[in-house]
Amino acid sequence: MNQDQLKQDVARAAIDHIAPKLNKDSVLGIGTGSTANFFIDMLAELKGDFAAAVASSDASAQRLKSQGIEVLDLNEVNELVAYIDGTDESNAQLALIKGGGAALTREKIVRAVAREFICIADESKWVKVLGRFPLPVEVIPMARSYVSRELVKLGGDPVYREGVTTDNGNVIVDVHNLSIVNPKELELQINQITGVVANGLFAHMGADVLLLGRPDGVETIYPN
Ligand code: 5RP
User: Fold this and answer.
1) Which parts of the chain register pLDDT below 70?
2) Of 1, 29, 79, 221, which residue is most buried, by most CB within 10 angstroms?
3) Atom nearest to 31 CA in ligand 1
4) 107: annotated active-site residue
């Protein structure tokens, strides 16, 4: 079974998880990436069972619209029933590293408004200690060098993600070689650096449930 099949399995599991919670007024938050794309395509089956969606990126908004799903601006919405998104890593507390697709800031905002964060991922994303995947940090362009020097002081090796501009007009610095034993503390420390817009640690507002795709089935994991 390949990785794409596992991603499709968890997208299907998320559809099954969310379907009973929807009504005609429900608005869903939708993430970004290849796993989220499988979910978006399957969500078309539930059209009519919910009102609309809010997307965490322009790319996901386009995909939702192409499936005939109405996309709202987050400012028009008081609450999202759930936020469904992939991840780059998860630990057993369901603290995450996200932002491989450079959408981390909007993902954090949409997640903050959601009642429940349903994370969907194949088993390659499951780790004991976060940090094998380089931690993405969204930075105001003129602060890139300064922020990078500060990230070195925190023990990481920052690398500018060349050629990438976020939907917010900023740049991404990926921090390599971190072993993140206290994700909540590091999330706050990085947020304190002037010029940082957001970092890809979702520890203070991690996932509420992780649907993890394994070759023998989808495991439902709650925070440890
Ligand atoms: C985008 C993200 C994605 O959720 C993350 O990169 C996982 O992507 P994929 O489902 O393609 O493996 O955080 O910013």
Assistant:
1) none
2) 29
3) 4
4) yes
Provide the pLDDT for residue 219: 98
Position 163 scores a pLDDT of 98
pLDDT recorded at residue 33 = 98
Q: Which of 45, 79, 89, 107 is catalytic?
A: 107
| Residues in Cβ contact with 82 at an 8 Å cutoff, skipping those fewer than 6 apart | 18, 21, 28, 29, 114, 115, 116, 117, 118
Least Cα distance to 44 among 57, 58, 59, 30 occurs for 30
The three-state DSSP-derived secondary structure of the chain is: CCHHHHHHHHHHHHHHHHHHHCCCCCEEEECCCHHHHHHHHHHHHHCCCCCEEEECCHHHHHHHHHCCCCECCHHHCCCECEEEECCCEECCCCCEECCCCCCHHHHHHHHHHECCEEEEEEHHHECCCECCCCEEEEECHHHHHHHHHHHHHCCCEEEECCCCCCCCCCEEEEEECCCECCHHHHHHHHHCCCCEEEECEECCCCCCEEEEEECCEEEEECCC
CA of 166 to the centre of ligand 1 (A): 14
| pLDDT of 108 | 98
Q: What one-letter code names the amino acid at 73?
A: D
d(CA 157, CA 109): 26
